[in-house]
Amino acid sequence: KTFTSLGDIELSAAGSIIPTANSNGIPDLVGQEIRLTAASIGRIEVAANALPGVHAANGDIEIIDLESVTENSQGLNRVDVTADNGSVSIRAPETIEVVNIQAPALGASVTVQSENGSVKVVERTGGGTTINSGGRVTILAGQGVLLEGSVTAPNGAEYRGASLIIGENAELKGKTLALEGDSSFVINGSLK
User: Fold this and answer.
1) Dihedral sign from CA coordinates of 185, 143, 77, 174
2) N or C: which end of the chain has fewer CB within 10 A?
3) Distance CA 49, CA 65 (A)
4) Comparing C-alpha atoms, which of 32, 27, 25 is closest to residue 9?
5) Residue 89 pairs with which residues in a beta bridge?
6) pLDDT tens digits, one per residue of 27-84
7) What is the pLDDT of residues 118-162, one digit of tens each?
8) Torsion angle, CA of 31/33/39/44, rounded to 10 degrees?
9) What residues have CB less than 8 Å from 183, skipping those under 6 apart?
10) Residues 6 or more apart from 35 whose CB is under 8 A from it?
């Protein structure tokens, strides 16, 4: 079954939020903004415009955005996801705007993939690291990657897109950094 709202969806659970059928190409949740808080979330398919607050205390979070005719705009805006003790994976066919992704557990990874659009990592309001991983960070975009916020990836990071722009306030930290762009690179920030 799909849970649908023309407005926003907010679900909280002391235990797990588990979709009824994984990877069937039908969204589990359809809404403008989706907020989830639970002990664990796992893999969930959505059709949403924004993920302004997704939090799991344990385990990985994997969110796949499937575009829907009920959405006001294509892609995912205001992605704010935290996995206290797991990895985070966000995938969408169109543009993704990341305001905060935290996966601080040792070895935890963060993956953000836009198949046809861009990935924009915005500078965090009040400073701080926009994407914080206890392991690796991978950002893949069918179009451009725009990094305005800071990214920490102690085990290394990979950024791939048609173009790659690193803004002047961006700071990329990692053991190794792999940067790949088909057409252009602009680096104004710092690589450490």
Assistant:
1) negative
2) N
3) 9
4) 32
5) 62, 111
6) 888 889 999 999 999 899 999 999 999 999 999 999 999 875 455 567 899 999 999 9
7) 999 999 888 789 999 999 999 999 999 999 999 999 999 999 999
8) 50
9) 162, 163
10) 8, 9, 10, 11, 51, 52, 53, 54
